[in-house]
Amino acid sequence: MHDKRLLTCISVMMGLDVIGADDEAEMEDASETTTSNASSKNTPSPRAQKEEKMDVDKTPEQISAMKEKEAGNAAYKKKDFETALTHYSKAIELDPTDMTFLNNKAAVFFEQQKYQECISTCEKAVEVGRENRADFKLISKAFTRTGNAYKALKGLKQYSKAQDAYQKAIDIDPNCQDALDGFRECMMSMNSDPEEVGGEEMQGE
Prior knowledge:
Layout (H helix, E strand, L loop, with lengths): L1 H13 L31 H11 L3 H18 L3 H14 L4 H13 L3 H17 L4 H18 L2 H17 L4 H16 L1 H11 L1
């Protein structure tokens, strides 16, 4: 792990991390743009056709879970975090195999500055994602958010844990710009004023 972190340090210092990473929205599917109206009114859009096909393959519980997630996303956009949590929790109850709901729930905890809850939810998301062969970018996102939460807690030990989490995200997705940026910020914070960082850690114990 330390060798990987050293390589990452060298990479970010040399500016080798700009690899054209995707600018993903904070919430999965929460900020998607609407499709154009170029097609005729009676012709379903390709996205609508795709969603209809996907729904055929889903169980009633999974379809209901997706509706709960959409309601949660709408509440999240309005910063109605308690309502968002309620919907995401319901989605998890309906379909515990989809890590996206856990990722979104962790995002709410982060916005509420409930960083320990965010971290534990991200850890659960990674576990569920790996068990169900989730998209590697979703798992990387969970590790990145874990790093963000540790970084927000501050302190020498927290920055070190944040770097470990960012490194795991980078190992999975080398193009994850958020993880690369987070790793760099932790490195700069730890090197800029070690005495201040150490003092923060002592106050937190």
